[in-house]
# Entry
Amino acid sequence: MKNKYGIKERLGEAFRLYFILVTLITILLMVVGMLFDGDRTFSYEAFFSPLFYAFIGVIPVFFFQSDKELSMKRLIIRNVLYVLIVEAAILLIVFKAPNIPSDRIEVVISIAVGVLVVFILSLIIEYIFELTQANEMNTYLEEYQKNK
# Structure
């Protein structure tokens, strides 16, 4: 059976992932900032960075989808490629941004590990969301079959 994964579904997945990422990235920035640069104060423009980083994290959603069901091996490979691309993009920004102390190796490592943690947490949250939807759908199907 062919999976019709159209633009509407991709946009829905991207929006859901975007807001999950914004939340997780905000927490990551808070933790890393408090650990390595707790005395710094920011202007309100700092609130744009989680929005921007989450946008970068959502871009692969549009390029890494398949019309057919992926095997576990291919799913893992896709997710590894996905996280490597996001890591590379974020680290490129870290090294280019003048206000991020990329000369401190502990900051760079914490950002790289943080991106990986955010990625894993987003997968877990997505899994829980989809599991909840599947359970609701199964409940509705059972009720429908009983009433049929």
Remarks:
- The first helix runs from residue 7 to 36.
- The mean pLDDT is 86.
